[in-house]
Design a protein that fits this description.
Shape: globular
Strand order of the largest sheet: 8-7-2-1-9-10
Helix content: 40-55%
Strand content: 5-15%
Order of helices and strands: EHHHHEHHEHEEHEHEEHHEHEH
Number of helices: 13
Number of strands: 10
Largest sheet: 6 strands, mixed
Radius of gyration: 18 Å
Length: 329
């Protein structure tokens, strides 16, 4: 049983999309994604430096575009279709902004609408971040209850409870620095390459902008369940999914509950699409015995296709449905 997972912000790296644009049809597809998002994703995915792509307004559409490009290359190697194939998986899931990617893979959002929505999300969250100097730091190790007590004791929020011994604290930069100077016992505190305290009260101003965009966005019911990063529950209603996408901007991500759901479903394989590494790393520690595959670049496509064949099991065959999948409302 296969689940496909989509990473969140902080996973982007310079030159992320350069090798993918060598494949048939992907450059023109990325150009259309750029138009939809209002961001030059060709430049940012190939030549922009780390500081530039750290900008929330750039990073979020870049990550979603990378996920969609790598997914289409995985299941449509000839690049002959602008449509996204139905995931050959029991479920899909995404961490933070990766849930927008997951919504597009599952057919709840047309790809261009997903990029338009994430463009709004990124700009609104960047503006909210500029209102106050905030950030995020990963707390690795330690006793879970002591870690949470320390985070809250510094006036911070456990914005990502990722499982596998990782919690991400978010809030005021001075408070994050204080946490780093006095970490919980047997824990390390590592600042993350993000520009704000995402999934906290600091993002409240971004919610209204995203909600307004969501109200005019066509949504369909997903073709496969989307395991929600709010509570690990499988979502099969498109409208409910979009509401969760709006709400998650200022609420914590519970990836630990997503991994618990994967285990409960009997998942045998976890495939992470671009920009991969973070989520399979968590699964390596939190889902013992489950097969893992990180789709890192075009040179790993054959390995990823073999992994899909091995773990897809009784998942629906790869196909393209109507509606949101063809890029139209």
């Amino acid at each position: 049983m296969l689940v496909i997972v989509c990473p969140g912000q902080g996973s982007q790296v310079p030159g992320l999309l350069a090798p993918w644009l060598e494949l048939p049809g992907l450059r023109s597809r990325l150009e259309s994604y750029s138009d939809a998002a209002g961001v030059d994703l060709v430049a940012h995915g190939t030549t922009s430096d780390a500081d530039t792509i750290r900008d929330t307004a750039v990073a979020q559409p870049l990550i979603v575009a990378g996920g969609l490009l790598s997914y289409s290359a995985l299941l449509d190697p000839d690049g002959g279709s602008e449509q996204l194939p139905t995931p050959p998986a029991a479920a899909v899931s995404g961490h933070s902004v990766g849930e927008v990617t997951a919504a597009a893979l599952a057919g709840a959002l047309a790809p261009l609408l997903a990029l338009s929505l994430v463009g709004v999300r990124g700009r609104a969250m960047a503006e909210a971040s500029n209102a106050h100097p905030t950030g995020m730091s990963a707390v690795l190790g330690g006793r879970p209850e002591e870690v949470l007590d320390a985070i809250e004791g510094h006036g911070l929020t456990p914005a990502n409870v990722n499982g596998a011994g990782q919690v991400v604290a978010a809030g005021d930069l001075d408070a994050l620095a204080a946490l780093g100077e006095a970490p919980p016992a047997r824990a390390r505190v590592i600042p993350l390459s993000v520009a704000g305290a995402f999934h906290t009260r600091y993002m409240a101003p971004a919610v209204d902008a995203l909600a307004a965009a969501a109200r005019t966005t066509h949504v369909a019911d997903p073709a496969v369940p989307i395991v929600s990063n709010r509570d690990g529950e499988p979502v099969t209603s498109g409208r409910q999914l979009v509401q969760r996408l709006v709400d998650q901007v200022r609420n914590p991500v519970r990836w630990d509950l997503c991994m618990e759901r994967f285990a409960a479903l009997g998942v045998t394989g976890v495939l992470e699409i671009v920009p991969s590494g973070t989520l399979v790393g968590l699964a390596k520690r939190g889902l013992k015995g489950v097969g893992l595959c990180a789709l890192a670049g075009p040179d790993s496509l054959d390995e990823a296709r073999a992994f899909v064949r091995e773990h897809a099991g009784d998942a629906p065959p790869v196909s393209v449905s109507a509606g949101a999948r063809n890029g139209q409302p």
